[in-house]
Protein backbone atom coordinates (compact mmCIF):
# COMPACT_ATOMS: atom_id res chain seq x y z
CA UNK A 1 0.00 0.00 0.00
CA UNK A 2 2.81 2.42 0.88
CA UNK A 3 4.61 1.61 -2.38
CA UNK A 4 1.42 2.32 -4.34
CA UNK A 5 0.99 5.69 -2.60
CA UNK A 6 4.60 6.68 -3.29
CA UNK A 7 4.33 5.56 -6.92
CA UNK A 8 1.10 7.54 -7.33
CA UNK A 9 2.72 10.67 -5.87
CA UNK A 10 5.76 10.33 -8.14
CA UNK A 11 3.51 9.81 -11.15
CA UNK A 12 1.63 13.03 -10.37
CA UNK A 13 4.86 14.99 -9.92
CA UNK A 14 6.18 13.77 -13.27
CA UNK A 15 3.02 14.91 -15.06
CA UNK A 16 2.83 18.25 -13.26
CA UNK A 17 3.44 21.45 -15.18
CA UNK A 18 5.41 24.34 -13.76
CA UNK A 19 4.11 27.87 -13.70
CA UNK A 20 3.21 30.73 -11.45
CA UNK A 21 0.12 31.74 -9.53
CA UNK A 22 -1.40 35.08 -8.65
CA UNK A 23 -4.77 35.78 -7.05
CA UNK A 24 -7.87 37.86 -7.67
CA UNK A 25 -11.00 38.75 -5.70
CA UNK A 26 -13.85 39.51 -8.16
CA UNK A 27 -15.37 36.11 -9.00
CA UNK A 28 -18.52 37.08 -10.91
CA UNK A 29 -19.30 37.43 -13.65
CA UNK A 30 -17.03 34.69 -14.96
CA UNK A 31 -16.28 33.70 -18.55
CA UNK A 32 -17.53 30.15 -17.93
CA UNK A 33 -20.59 30.61 -15.72
CA UNK A 34 -21.67 34.25 -16.04
CA UNK A 35 -23.23 35.51 -12.80
CA UNK A 36 -23.73 32.04 -11.34
CA UNK A 37 -21.62 31.79 -8.19
CA UNK A 38 -19.25 28.87 -7.79
CA UNK A 39 -17.28 27.73 -4.76
CA UNK A 40 -14.32 29.80 -3.64
CA UNK A 41 -11.75 27.18 -4.68
CA UNK A 42 -11.63 28.52 -8.23
CA UNK A 43 -9.21 29.89 -10.80
CA UNK A 44 -8.98 31.85 -14.02
CA UNK A 45 -6.96 30.19 -16.78
CA UNK A 46 -4.47 31.85 -19.10
CA UNK A 47 -5.69 32.14 -22.73
CA UNK A 48 -3.73 29.07 -23.86
CA UNK A 49 -5.08 26.82 -21.11
CA UNK A 50 -8.58 28.34 -21.37
CA UNK A 51 -8.68 27.27 -25.04
CA UNK A 52 -11.90 29.07 -26.01
CA UNK A 53 -13.74 27.70 -22.97
CA UNK A 54 -12.63 24.07 -23.16
CA UNK A 55 -11.02 24.43 -19.71
CA UNK A 56 -14.30 25.47 -18.05
CA UNK A 57 -15.12 23.12 -15.19
CA UNK A 58 -11.76 21.32 -15.29
CA UNK A 59 -10.07 20.82 -11.93
CA UNK A 60 -6.38 21.30 -11.20
CA UNK A 61 -4.34 20.27 -8.18
CA UNK A 62 -1.82 23.00 -7.36
CA UNK A 63 1.20 23.09 -5.07
CA UNK A 64 3.37 26.10 -4.24
CA UNK A 65 7.05 25.57 -5.08
CA UNK A 66 8.54 28.90 -3.99
CA UNK A 67 8.37 32.64 -4.21
CA UNK A 68 9.27 34.82 -7.15
CA UNK A 69 10.89 37.41 -4.92
CA UNK A 70 13.05 37.24 -1.82
CA UNK A 71 10.19 37.23 0.70
CA UNK A 72 10.36 34.91 3.70
CA UNK A 73 8.39 31.63 3.54
CA UNK A 74 5.98 32.31 0.66
CA UNK A 75 4.62 28.74 0.51
CA UNK A 76 2.35 26.76 2.78
CA UNK A 77 2.38 22.96 2.94
CA UNK A 78 -0.09 20.95 0.93
CA UNK A 79 -2.16 21.29 -2.18
CA UNK A 80 -5.31 23.04 -3.29
CA UNK A 81 -7.72 21.78 -5.94
CA UNK A 82 -9.38 24.50 -8.00
CA UNK A 83 -12.06 24.57 -10.67
CA UNK A 84 -11.49 26.71 -13.77
CA UNK A 85 -14.35 29.20 -14.01
CA UNK A 86 -12.83 32.16 -15.81
CA UNK A 87 -10.38 33.52 -18.35
CA UNK A 88 -7.41 35.63 -17.30
CA UNK A 89 -6.71 37.47 -20.57
CA UNK A 90 -3.59 39.19 -19.21
CA UNK A 91 -2.04 36.03 -17.74
CA UNK A 92 1.08 34.58 -19.32
CA UNK A 93 1.02 31.03 -20.73
CA UNK A 94 2.44 29.59 -17.50
CA UNK A 95 0.15 31.48 -15.13
CA UNK A 96 -3.04 30.66 -13.20
CA UNK A 97 -4.99 33.37 -11.39
CA UNK A 98 -6.43 31.77 -8.24
CA UNK A 99 -9.21 32.99 -5.99
CA UNK A 100 -7.78 34.66 -2.91
CA UNK A 101 -9.09 31.77 -0.77
CA UNK A 102 -7.38 29.14 -2.95
CA UNK A 103 -4.12 31.12 -3.03
CA UNK A 104 -4.16 31.39 0.78
CA UNK A 105 -4.34 27.59 1.06
CA UNK A 106 -0.94 27.19 -0.61
CA UNK A 107 0.83 30.53 -0.16
CA UNK A 108 1.13 33.66 1.91
CA UNK A 109 -0.90 36.37 0.10
CA UNK A 110 1.88 38.86 0.86
CA UNK A 111 4.02 36.92 -1.64
CA UNK A 112 1.72 38.11 -4.44
CA UNK A 113 3.18 35.75 -7.05
CA UNK A 114 4.47 32.23 -6.40
CA UNK A 115 5.98 29.43 -8.45
CA UNK A 116 3.70 26.39 -8.69
CA UNK A 117 3.34 22.88 -10.00
CA UNK A 118 -0.11 21.90 -11.23
CA UNK A 119 -1.76 18.82 -12.66
CA UNK A 120 -5.25 18.08 -13.96
Automatic annotation (TrEMBL):
GO cellular component, one term: apoplast
Family annotation (Pfam families): DPBB_1
Keywords: Secreted, Signal
Gene3D superfamilies in UniProt: RlpA-like domain
Cleaved signal peptide residues: 1-16
Principal location listed in the UniProt entry: secreted
Subcellular location: Secreted
Record flagged with keyword Membrane: no
Domain Expansin-like EG45 residues, every copy: 19-120
InterPro entries on file: EGC1/2, Expansin/allergen_DPBB_dom, RlpA-like_DPBB, RlpA-like_sf
Alphabetized SMART domains for the sequence: DPBB_1
SUPFAM superfamilies, sorted: Barwin-like endoglucanases (SSF50685)
Keyword Ion transport among UniProt keywords: no
Any one GO biological process: systemic acquired resistance
Matches recorded under PANTHER family: EG45-LIKE DOMAIN CONTAINING PROTEIN 1-RELATED, OS06G0688300 PROTEIN
Protein name: Expansin-like EG45 domain-containing protein
Species this chain originates from: Salvia splendens (Scarlet sage)
